[in-house]
Structure formats: C-alpha cells, structure tokens
Design goal:
Radius of gyration: 28 Å
Order of helices and strands: EHHEHEEEEHEHEEEHHEHHHHHHEE
Helix content: 40-55%
Distance between the termini: 36 Å
Shape: elongated
Largest sheet: 4 strands, antiparallel
Amino acid sequence: FKVRHVMNITDVGHLSGDDDSGVDKLEKGSKKTGKSVWDVAKFYTEYYFKTMDRLNVIRPDTICPATDHIREMIALIGKLEKNGLTYETKEAVYFDTTKFKNYGKLSRQKLEEKLQGVRNEVFVDSDKRHPADFALWFKRQGRFANHTMHWDSPWGDGFPGWHIECSAMSMEYLGSTIDIHTGGVDHIPVHHENEIAQSESATGKPFVRYWFHNNFLKVNGEKMSKSLGNFYTIEDLEKYNIDPLAVRYLFLQTHYRQVMNFTWESAKAAQEGLQNLRNYVANLRKSFDDRIRPNLTDEAESYLKKFKIDVEEDLMLPQAIATMWELLKSNISPDEKLLLVLKFDEVLGLELDNVKPVTIPEDVKVMAEQRLDAKKVGDYKKADQIRKLIRVKGFEIEDSKDGYQIKKLA
C-alpha cells in the first residue's frame, strides 16, 4: 500500500493536563525561556525533525501546524453545535459527552466512571456539566485572559482545545474516516476518546479503522522527566559517542506494545550489535558483484518469508531482527545473504546499504599474525598485549576454528 502519512504540530491549545486543566504548554515554555510562543514552537518543531532525521525516521508527507488550521477547527465546532452536541459557558465551548452514546468504547470505560477532578490544583469550570466533557474552544477570559495566541470566532476571541485540532486536521487531509491513527497508550482514555466522539458526531461515519498505540519509554526504570535529570537528547548521544542509528537498533529490539527501558549500558550494547551487523555486511560486500543478481534458492526464500511473517504479525520487529541474525549465520551463499539483509533493511532502516567493505591497515594485519604466532607457542600474555594494541587501532580480533577474523570496533 502507498501510505499517506500526516503529522500534526500542536503549537497551541495543549494544556499541561489532558482534562482541560493546567496551562498552555507553549505559554509555559515562553515564560520560561523569554522567547515568543511562536519562536518556542518553531524551535521545538525544528529540533524534533532534526532528531528524527538522525534516527533515520522518514518525514511525513504532510506536516500541519494547528495554528495554520484554525478556520477548519471553527468550522468543525460549528458543525457540532448545529448537531446539538455542544454547550457554552462563560469560559469555553464544551462537547457534551452524554449525547454521544458510544463514549468510552476505545478505553472500555463507562461514562459514569469519569469523576470530577477534586485536587485543589486542578482547574474545573464550575459551569461544566460532566467531568468527561471537554473544551472545544477556550475563551480569552479568566485564566486565559492574557493568552498570547488567539483568534476571532462565533464564540468570542480565544483559541482551540487540543482534541478538536487533531480531528479537524485529519479530516482536512485524510477525509472523514482514516485508516490508521497512532499515539501513546496514555492517549487512549481521554484524547483519543474525545477525538472519536467529536469526529463521529460531526460526520456520522467511523473515525478510525485501526488504532496503533505504543507503550512508554523509561530511563533507568523511571519515567523520563527533566526534574530527575534523565531526559536525554540527540546531543547526549554524541557525548557518549553513541551512533543515533544504534539507538534505532535498540528500539527495534522491544515490541511497541511493551514498556522499554533505556540505559546507557543498553545503548552501548546496541552500538556493538549494530557494528557487528555492519561488519558482516562489509565482509559480504567484498566478494559481491552488483552486476550479477543471483536467483534466490528455496532456503534463502524461506528467510524472506519468515521475515515477512515477523513484520506482519503485529510488527514483531524484535523477532525480525532475530531472523536477520539467523540468516547471517546460516549456510546460504554470501551474495544471497547480502541481498536479503539489504531487503530486510528497507523495513529496519539501519542504512546498511551505505556500509562499504572495511580496509584493514597493514600494521593491524601484521599484529594479527604476530598474535597468532604467539598463541601457537603458548605465549598468551604477549597475545593479549597485541590484542590490546589492535583495539587501540580501532579493531577487534575474533578467534575462530580457522584462525581469526579482524573486525572494526563500534
């Protein structure tokens, strides 16, 4: 299938609480940095895509900032109002969840189970009818009287809520029903329930055919947060000499439904694993003639089928990685191995097609022979000293029954 991938940029309206509580995240960032909200949004948007590029994540076909689609949001709210699904208070326009009979079908949570926030620090509009009702449009009054980003609307000067943004932009680019909607598992009980309710109430059609929810990424067993000092960036990888693609390789080894735990030890292990993979590919390239494409044997075809099954079984990428290593250690021809690994990498995205044969310096080759001679006469101390010198040069000796193999270090 040809995928049309749309990604929104939430540059207004996402409050610090998903339940309409708290402050606008960009306003908060603006006060902290002294920059305008527009500059804060621009900085983080560019930084995000810079990071994704380093991880070899393909950019979406369409990138849509919320602030470019206010007209579409106002039109969608107007349609909901016309259908009798909204009510207005002095502070906001709300979606009336009691009028959408299927509210809670994604999270399997009944509407009556949604309780009003009781913590003192949680803001609750006193005119809000039900705790699950959510804001479609915030008015520039009360706590938002000085909100920097604001637009005229039939309900007064203000700005859109986070939930309406996603529905309006997805409908603009993908129509009333979209095939796949992605997001974190934390979006299920509130944000995605709200998207379903407002979208299906406006169109009378199913909003999403397939929901794709990924689980959390933790750091050293804890939730990532700036207060804990465990919120890492692409620059932190550079400080630890970790290739961003090694982090991609690390992520591929945990299924998206599982919680993943990031540690620097696991990142370094992934870097070694990726370098081993590159070494395999580099060795396979030595004898490969790109002008000759061999027909795959039945055994080679079986690996291709197995990899395809792994991917199609709910994106079981950790198993797909295991299949790739099983292939590399098999007895099929080097040319078939290389062709298949590069085919697999069209899915894995580890840029293995850029790997070239490794040139071993002559002095390293000489030292490797000297080490072998030392081992033959039982001088293991000298052999170990030579191994260390070779490592200083950026290479590793891997012993085998036939002698040894020289590999480039990660």
